Amino acid sequence: MKQILCIFGLCTLLTLGFTACQTEDPLTLELQQQEMKKRDSKKHPKLEYVTTGKNNHDQLSKCSVTENNGKLHVVFQLSTTDQVSLKFCDSSGKIIFKESRIKLNNTKEIDISPAEKYPYTFKIEAKEFIILGNISLE
Fold first, then answer.
1. Model-level pTM?
2. Predicted pLDDT of residue 50
3. What are phi and psi of 101, to 5 degrees?
4. 112: CB partners within 8 A, 6+ apart
5. Which residues, other chains included, contact 74 with Cβ-Cβ below 8 Å and sequence gap of 6+?
6. Cβ neighbours of residue 125 under 8 Å, at least 6 residues apart?
7. Which of 133, 75, 69, 124 is nearest to 98 (CA)?
8. Mind listing the pLDDT tens digit for each residue in 1-40?
9. How crowded is residue 48: how many other Cβ atoms within 10 Å of its Cβ?
């Protein structure tokens, strides 16, 4: 019985020793890093929002977000003729875009450069409603 335990212990130590000495091939590591970069580059910006106010129906008739050449391109259009204020903040809370007393019943396009401080938050405020939203990578 003692011999079996000694043999089992020796095999366990040899297995651990060989496992600890095993190294990764540099080419394999480089391929893994390239694959991770490809997966990250497939992420796209995603816009989500909620509307609050007296009538909680959807006030945004058009909204979209795209990223191209390191710029974030956001498009808004409201189904109201009220004047609104619009504010964008980056992930650190810094205001990167602010405009007051504008009408968004026509399409409003905003470019944010560089598009790297995700998630972004935005607030559209009018007399009757507030729209709170964020833009994140999916």
1. 0.65
2. 87
3. 50, 55
4. 71, 72, 74, 88, 96, 97, 120
5. 47, 63, 64, 65, 88, 109, 110, 111, 112, 122, 135
6. 84, 85, 87, 131
7. 124
8. 778 878 888 778 777 766 655 555 666 666 666 665 555 5
9. 13
Residue with tokens 């006030």: 59
pLDDT digits (tens, 9 = 90+) for 43-72: 788 888 888 876 656 678 888 999 888 888
- Taking the C-alpha atoms of residue 134 and residue 118, their distance in angstroms, rounded to an integer, is 9
The C-alpha atoms of residue 105 and residue 123 are separated, in whole angstroms, by: 16
Tokens describing residue 78 = 């409201």
- E strand map for 2-138: 45-53, 60-68, 71-78, 83-89, 95-103, 108-112, 120-125, 129-137
